Amino acid sequence: MEKQKKTFFSAKSITFLAVLLALVIVLQVFSGFFKIGTTSLSFVLIPIVLGGMILGPLYGAILGVAFGVVVIIDALAGLDPFTLILLQERPITTVLLCLIKGTAAGYFSGLIYHLIKNKNKLVASFVAAAAAPIINTGIFILGALLMSETLKNNFVADGQTLMYFLIIVCAGVNFLIELALNLVLAPSINTVENVIEKQLLSRSK
Question: Between residues 31 and 69, which one has the greater pLDDT?
Answer without folding.
Answer: 69
